[in-house]
Design goal:
The structure is a single chain. 35% of the residues lie in helices and 28% in strands. It is α/β, with parallel strands linked by helices. The chain folds into 2 domains: 114 residues, NAD(P)-binding Rossmann-like Domain (Rossmann fold), CATH 3.40.50.720; 172 residues, Dihydrodipicolinate Reductase, domain 2 (2-Layer Sandwich), CATH 3.30.360.10. The strands form 2 sheets. Strands 8-9-10-7-11-12-13-14 form an 8-stranded mixed β-sheet, covered by helices on one side. It is globular. The protein starts with a strand and ends with a helix. The protein binds nicotinamide-adenine-dinucleotide (NAD). Nicotinamide-adenine-dinucleotide binds next to loops.
């Protein structure tokens, strides 16, 4: 392989247009192909990236021996087939989240990438967010104390999707960050959700996770909420962290706040001390997470290192998505949409 990673970019839609720009700017990366099924999209992107060969044919990229890696930013149902074909063609693969729609497919891709010695990286963008990076460092240093629990809220009015529920659409990022910060997989998951807008597609989902050492995490996702929220809160025995991604700046607040049970209590209530300290707004680098993520993939190939969000990370996330799905399918539904439709009729 040359010192430069020669890359083919597949999928130039709503998210792909950001990813392609980021790979085009990455150091030691040469954007050699842009690929999309839509001629209109290809034409638009050809003007932006004249150095890349436009094609509608994904296979043409795989057939080119000069290509080292592909970036797959197509709809989720296509990820498995495309990533598998690319690995079998000897290419390193970046694939968007969710890595696949089934955990056996994700497992197969991991095994393929390992046996073929090709990098497989999943677009768990928030693992590359400078705020999450700072949260991880503060947690691992012990500054926050023992982590009791964390919760994530990803709420908005819309975008309502037709082919996946709100959890598959929004929660992969939250799951990946929880697993990254906790360094553990949950030993218990309880999910509830409802379909208020479309039959069989949950627009509101709550998931509670329990971890082997007693920590807890909750994810709340919704397309049916008056507020746009992108929030993660970590509660530790010494300090608490609030990552509010809706803030233009000062996205991370560190609360020097805690509750402690003193030794030798007279009774349980008297023994609890509440401490309200300073609120610190640390300076977080303003680097765009997507630039960090794409550069990380290029560097992993060049330096032969394992990407942070490798295939195994993608597999852990898909396993949780699948478990939540199984629970949601097994819940009795109130069928409020059907009832509402009958009333209208
Ligand atoms: N990491 C993030 O923050 C983030 C954000 C948004 C979306 N995503 C993920 O990115 C992926 C794409 O989402 P999107 O919103 O860009 O979807 P999109 O529908 O806007 O774009 C998909 C593109 O793929 C193209 N395509 C479809 N089949 C193709 C084929 N066979 N060959 C070449 N191109 C083909 C389509 O023409 C379209 O341009 C999804 O997996 C989604 O979950 C990730």
């Amino acid at each position: 392989m040359s010192d430069v990673v020669r890359l083919g970019m597949v999928g130039l839609g709503g998210w792909g247009k950001n990813v392609v720009r980021s790979f085009a700017q990455a150091q030691n990366c040469q954007l050699k192909y842009i690929c999309d099924a839509s001629p209109k999209s290809l034409e638009q992107h050809s003007k932006l990236f004249p150095q890349a060969t436009p094609t509608q044919d994904f296979q043409a990229i795989l057939n080119d021996p000069e290509i080292d890696a592909v970036s797959i930013v197509t709809p989720a149902p296509m990820h498995y087939d495309m990533a598998k074909a690319a690995l079998l063609a000897g290419k390193h693969v970046y694939v968007e989240k969710p890595m696949t729609l089934q955990s056996d497919h994700a497992q197969e891709l991991c095994e393929l990438s390992e046996s073929l010695d090709r990098k497989l990286m999943v677009g768990h963008l928030l693992e590359y967010h400078p705020v999450v990076d700072m949260m991880k460092k503060r947690i691992d240093s012990g500054e926050i104390g023992d982590i009791h629990y964390m919760y994530c809220q990803r709420l908005n009015l819309g975008v309502v999707r037709q082919h996946e529920n709100a959890f598959w659409s929004l929660a992969p990022h939250d799951i990946s960050v929880i697993l990254y910060l906790f360094g553990q997989e949950p030993d218990g998951i309880v999910a509830s959700g409802e379909c208020f807008l479309q039959p069989g597609i949950e627009d509101v989902v709550f998931v509670n996770m329990h971890f082997p050492d007693g920590r807890m995490a909750q994810i709340h996702v919704s397309w049916l909420d008056p507020h746009k929220e992108r929030k993660m809160v970590v509660v530790g025995s010494q300090k608490m962290l609030v990552f509010d991604d809706m803030q233009a700046s000062e996205k991370l607040r560190i609360f020097d706040t805690s509750a402690k049970v003193d030794a030798g209590p007279v009774n349980a209530i008297q023994a609890i001390t509440l401490r309200h300290g300073d609120i610190v707004l640390p300076r977080v680098p303003a680097t765009e997470p997507l630039m960090i993520e794409t550069q990380h993939f290029v560097d992993a190939i060049r330096n032969n290192t394992t990407p942070r969000s490798d295939g195994r990370d993608g597999l852990r996330v898909v396993r949780i998505l699948e478990q939540v799905d199984q629970q949601l399918r097994s819940l009795p539904k109130t069928h409020r949409i059907d009832q509402a439709r009958r009333k209208v009729a």
